Amino acid sequence: MAEETAVQELSKGWQFKQTDTEEWLPVARVPTNVHLDLMDNKKIEDPFLGFNELKCEWVGDKSWSYEVALPTATAAKEGTKHVLAFDGLDTFATVKLNGMTVLESDNMWIMHRVDVTSALKAGEANTLEITFKPALLEARKIKDAHPEHKWVGFNGDMARLAVRKAQYHWGWDWGPVLMTCGPWRAVRLETYHARVEDLRVDYEVDASFKKVSGTITATVEGSSGRVVNFSAEIDGKEVFKGTADVDSNGQAQVEFHVNEPRLWYPHGYGEQPLYTVTATTSTGEHNLHTLSRRTGFRKGELIQQPDHIGKTFYFRINGIDVFCGGSDWIPADSFTPRLTEAKYRKWLEMMVDGYQIMIRVWGGGIWEEDVFYDLCDELGVLVWQDFMFGCGNYPAYPEVLRSIEAECVCQTKRLRHHPSLTIYAGNNEDYQVQESCGLTYDYEDKDPQSWLKTDFPARYIYEKLLPDVVAAHSPHVPYHPGSPWGDGKVSSDPTVGDMHQWNVWHGTQEKYQIFDTLGGRFNSEFGMEAFPHIDTIKYYVTDPSQLYPQSHMIDFHNKADGHERRIATYLVENFRTHTNLEKFIHLTQLSQAEALMFGYRGWRQQWGQKRFCGGALVWQLNDCWPVTSWAIVDYFLRKKPAYYAMRRVLAPIAVAVKRAHHDWSVVHARPAKSSDYECWVASSKTKEMTATVELRYVSIATGKEIKKKALKTDVKIVANGTTEIFKGTIDNEKEEPHVLAARIWVDGEVVSRDVDWPQPLKYLDFSDRGVEVTPGGESISVKANKPTKGLVFEEREGVLINDSALDVVPGDEQVVKVRGLGANDKALKWTYLERLQAQTDSYSVIFSRLFPGKDPESMVSLPREELINLALTLPATATSPSSSSEPAPKVPQPMQKSDGAESLEALEQAPNQDPEIDEDKRHKAWVQGVSDDVNGLSLSVDRQSSYVGVSSITAALKVIFKTAPVARPFIAQSHTETALPSRSNSPPLHMRNPDPYYTPPADVGHKLIESYFAHVHVLMPMIDEEQFWHTYLYGERKDTPWLALLNMVLALGSLANSTCRNEEHITYFQRARKHLDLETFGSGNLLVLQAIGLLSGYYLHWLNRPNEANSLMGATLRMATALGLHREYDEATAAGPNGGYQKSGGTEVPVEIRRRTWWSLVCLDTWASMTTGRPSLGRLGPGVTCQSPRIPEQMNNAQYLASLRLLPIIHNITFCKLATKIQDKLAGQSLLKTDDLFSLDAELVKWHEELPPILQAVQRPQQKQRTGSVHPGQANSTTSSTASASSRNPFDFSQPPERDNTACPEVLKTPRAIMHWWYQTLRMLMHRPFLLAAALRRTTYASMSAEEKVAVSKVRLIAAQTIADIDQTCEDELMAGWNAVWLMYQAVMVPLVSLFHYLLSPTAYAHTASPGTSASDTMAGGDEEANKWRSQIETAMKFFDRMQPYSVAAKKSKDVVARLFAASKHVRQYYEASHLQQQLQHIRRQQGSPFQGLGESTSISDVFLPDGNNGGTFGVNNGAMCGPSPNDDAAMDSFWSDMMWDTFPELSEPLGVSGLVPGLDNFDWLPLGGQTEDTGNQQWTNWTFDDQQQ
Prior knowledge:
This protein is α+β, with helices and mostly antiparallel strands. The chain is built from 42 helices and 46 strands. Helix 25 runs parallel beside helix 27 and helix 38 (1374-1399) packs antiparallel against helix 39 (1423-1442). The longest helix has 38 residues, at 1450-1487.
């Protein structure tokens, strides 16, 4: 007798192993996949955390085996079958039963049933084993076996196209590469005589919607099943029953009729009644098997009718047109077996709560689980179902076609009973691949067999195989060949079919404010990225130091190509950007919310305009792992603000108001004179409604209404359409900035709001909003005194709110409903646009009033009592850095000069007009000798060929030589040596006269260009990288402008790619020079300008031709001015025939490239000239209106962090503006006024502190209060207390600097370091003149004013820090080394001057002190400080040694510093001897006995100075040691008036004094004495010596 079907699900008892190993591990459950099992067994870490995805890649390269013991089987009776059912095997599976292969599968979506009746051993153990080969490797084998096919597409390894496996497993632009395998769906052992294999319901709803008629067909397997009983019921009530015999084809069929059926509707349009249809097969006497399906009756249509635009594309359900607002759906996990029904329900209920009607199952994911479609049926969500093809040119050879057909028949039969299933689409974006890759597609060719012979054979799948499958197995569901697709037209055609609109974010990166104008008849994809919730980020960021925007770990969890620059583009365009992580998250989420609102709002309006737009599906609803993506709800079901923005605009009744878009960026931020606006109401209600609509005009600044509101009552709201309410015009010249605030009431209740803001939001001031958020049990009330943007509530697990991301206007209190918040729970946190900044600004104002000039970070560790005491003792600040724009320059007024300033001005002299002193002629080598008098490397301060000012190295050298003239003989170089360049190697002969039209081989050129853009471009991004590459790779240009620029790029790329010993760059430089002549300066070509800019701003400095570079750069800036790069242009010009482009040399130039070119030139000129002491000559005058660069809209190279690569130039512009201001002040006055000094220094510190974290270089604990803007009177008082807060000496720079926790992309490391060094150098240049003045006047530390002490202490501290930072942070590479050597040379001058200054102080020789010396008059620490300076000098010299491969000036710099350092030792020995002699003379006079030593008239200089240079103009033997008394102002004035540096003779001996004193080597110094008149307590005396020699 036949028995009922027995089903045993094989979910427990499994084990698995890596196939080629012996260790079996337990499996918790099946369905599963290998990653879940490996995690359960602690063999891999969670791939969703940190960088663990990379650690798991090996899993996909291995073969894995699963095994289970089957339940004991009884002997099969006649007619009984034992069947193993596999609902899904992922993917290349070999199934063995008791060692015998029973199944080979290579398609994860085919449901297999294997008859194992004969293979099972009755009463014995039976073992089922499944081995899964690595899909990645198998796919590559298949791909390699079909070289005739074009394997092209988007995303992932193109071998994926060969395999019927979820395509997102191969990695996508939102998902990880996790190559799963395993029994991913249920495995069962079934025993039966007969079973209902399939149940099919075909029906029609009549035109009146009052009757449903159709057939029910059951397919029966097994001869015992002879009869089928059918029934249908709803809510427990039977509405139909019938019986039919099974025919010879194994089918039984009955007709049915249902009168007054309960039709199924999408939610919001009606109910979702579901009928249960059942078929039971029997022998005629007893039942064998029953199969049931839930279904709903509805008439679904895709309406594609010609209209005045093209052809409509929308859905009609039961005669009602439905605007399908909704989302695209990807698998909700990379490991789908762990998805539960509860989680699916949360996702889909969230859609319904958000008024979303349709969900699109994307073709790169999976055929979803049964529960997904069941829930869509239950909740009333329409399903757009893609077939599983995504972003590729799929092959169509016979084997794969058979597999695809079997898969699609299987899946359509599984799904066809679901009323939610509304449309099948053949693929996702495969027609776009065809277009992008130029594959053959002739829509007029209707022969399917011919399609298989083209290079786009997949057309056969989409236009033949799949429509045939749908027609045969699911004919009631419309079929659409692809998404997007429209009647064979280009996929971006907005007049027909559906569209994927990616010109916001991808493509042309349009403003999101015009999203609605970019759409088509049905927008099945569009979107905007946003960061997930902060808790989601903290979940996957395993290293807390990575919790900042664009950290390595956060970037790793964003798989979108070019996401950095795209996010940055939309943030910079629309918001005031922030680097605080939570604020950054908020901004990205507001950007997404705004973008989607602008799209949905406009497209819903178009729905009411003759169904122009039939729907819009946002990409995407969900995530498959914790990631930054386009999802509006993240992996953990935490909603982003966009969810709520969509909810408001998709509400059944939604009021909308918007002003006409004004593209601020193309008109250079000029506001529109007027703006039209409109207000309308969109309704999905099927009946007309009566409403009241209000429109208010509310000032953003005051919160007051600027004019009378508009109000309409008893407005008839059109059913299922759009109703226009108001139109008007805003007079932007007469009306202050204001929002348009609309509300609509129905039956006395506000049902919708909308607020339109002036764009962009970054131009608006959101301070002082007066926001009040009041929790009240199950609600939260929100109100504000002024219009407030984007008020977002915390997303807390278990707590649901019905609205967020609110725009709040005065006079309109909003109430948000809350569920799940307990009475004792903390209130939800909230924020709004610029709230954090407003709070921070308030705190900063308070702090600056309490602690003027202090850095908060330096005071964190201070106890409360000390903070109070400090606040009470600090004087009020006189000046503070202003955040306002820089005032217009004023005409310089005559100023009263300090003594120090007058002294310093004597350092400046007119250069010699000597035609022989010429950079180009001094040494005619290919790498030119250093212009040593400009760069301070010649030690020849007496004969200058170029003017340099007090900011120059030369000024520091002059101070040393003037204050310690006895050092000159030990320093001076011979004329021959001085004339030699720092480096004079010449290139091989064949490189000296290169062909100017020759270009290097492609691989060489490619490498050098990559080097340029990787290392040079980031500091001066003036070149359009994308256009440059395109021209180089695909163009045939041989014109002079192009070749000049190309060769300069190659020259600099060659430099950056090597060490300074490589001279290949010279070849390219010479070629470039042949394309540049005097006529060049009359060119109007931007490429020529850029070539000269690279030459003058960078390359000539490398050749050490600073004067030539300076002159050419001046001409370059004037060329740029002639091209108008210094200006922004009015709206008409910018919008004029070329839009965002302007002409240059007959070529359209993007506005951004113009800006970047101008500011690159300005920065290059600033960096080159700020250390010369020369004036800026007005490069930043009031006529310069050029705006700072912005993030570019298009860049092809997604591997570079393009958005971050613009950060250096953007922030360097502000720095260079400050540097120019400081440079001009120093050029006009040698010493800055102390108020100016401290104010400018505070501005510099503020600039540095406000840099993005990735551009902030090194931090040292507790140092900032001394390097920051310190009030003059507090230089010493704060040092001790702060220093005590740290166990480490905060001013000890001998150890490596402690970096901050901010990771930095590799491409920014060198620019970041250089920016930091320049910042420190500029601060030194401001303060260094005070040190020079003190040294010139021989002012002791004790006699300095408070302001001078601060300045001198600060410059020493900054120099120490700079030396340590450069030494520790400079990488061994040319771009860093080149800059570092020059800036190290600047910094080391400070300890050198300090050391010589100290050596001229009597306290330096306290152990040999002469009578009357006061030991208390110290120089900031005496020998202890001097030893620190010596240590700094030694550090610098070691650094110069290390940098010799990377800087042509390193060796010469080391030589100069070494000479000066050695001279300091001689000076000390010289004056020690003098002091000793003075003591001995004093003793001799007291004792009345002659000193047996040198003769009375012998000067110590006669013995210790080189022959012929004994005294004379050095003023040693016949005058004061170093000039007049430091306290004698008149003498100082006279002294500087008389002092001209060209009176000093050139000295020929470089060092030594050997031969002058027999038996003495250069450094063998003996104390010698002499005799002089005792002058009492005079510190400095006239030293002459005894006639007698020792």
